[in-house]
Amino acid sequence: MTSQTQRTASQIVTNHSVGATVQVVIDSLFARIKSEEYPEGARLPSERTLSSELGVARNTVRDALDVLKSRNIIRRRAGSGSFVTYKSETSRPDSRTALAENTSPLDHLVVRGILEPEMVRLAVINMTQRDIMELDDILTQLEAVTTDSGEFIKAEEAFYRKIANGTGNPLLASCYELAIEACLQTFRSNLMRRHLTPKRIEDYQKRYNALFNAISSRDVETAVEYIKLHLIEEQKMLLQEG
């Protein structure tokens, strides 16, 4: 995180001229984001839910979210909700970033081949019904993208991150977070931006829909098979690129 970003983040908590109740909501939400209760890429609860949790009016929550959006802590999309864009200083230490930057495309794919089948298996077993509903919401966002490769990649990352967190294993989820960071730092984002045509986006959407259906029906074998097939397709793409 740059010094400018750090200063901007600090100003959200202490210097923005808003009403006292709005400020309390800002402080509460920002604390949750900094602690990674709502990690980067996560979708915040709805205004209605936050209003109920915090005991304030919805327009107060809306004003607080507007402030967070204005400071690039979250992004908001009509009909989709609010998503965290803030990168916690503690969650991205220099050593991890350096490791991600020095990960080769092949190494990245090998690690995904190790992590993702087990991650999906545990998610099928351990995801709560609420987790599955939230995964369904992310899938809906992912399926709404037709041409924007950048938006698709963000939704895809959120989809995988939700599965990782749904395993109930914080260490596995943390390992996969590093894999996501390596993905952002290395080849895959640029590669996918070049190859994510509308037709390929549609194909990926069908695969993720099938994976979601297997997860929601608690079909371990089918879910793991889908993720393995998806990894094979990504390997083919990498080999073609080479």
Provide a descriptive summary of the structure in words:
Helix content is 74%, strand content 3%. It is mostly helical and 242 residues long. The chain folds into two domains: 3-84, Orthogonal Bundle (Arc Repressor Mutant, subunit A), CATH 1.10.10.10; 94-241, Four Helix Bundle (Hemerythrin (Met), subunit A). The chain is globular and about 55 Å long. It starts with a helix and ends with a helix. 30% of the residues are buried. Mean pLDDT is 82; it is low at 1-10.
**How is the CATH topology of the largest domain named?**
Four Helix Bundle (Hemerythrin (Met), subunit A)
Give the end-to-end Cα distance, rounded to a whole number of Å: 32 Å
Number of domains: 2
CATH superfamily of the largest domain: GntR ligand-binding domain-like
The CATH architecture designation of the largest domain is: Up-down Bundle
β-strand amount:
under 5%
Count of individual helical segments: 12
Give, in order, the helices and strands: HHHHEEHHHHHHHH
Helix content: over 70%
Described by strand count, sense and barrel closure, the largest sheet is: 2 strands, antiparallel
Counting DSSP E segments of at least 2 residues, the number of strands comes to 2
Taking all Cα atoms into account, the compactness measure Rg is 19 Å
Overall outline: globular
The CATH class of the largest domain is identified as Mainly Alpha
Which features would summarize this protein structure in a list?
Four Helix Bundle (Hemerythrin (Met), subunit A), 2 domains, Arc Repressor Mutant, subunit A, mainly alpha, two-stranded antiparallel sheet, globular, 12 helices, disordered N terminus, about 240 residues
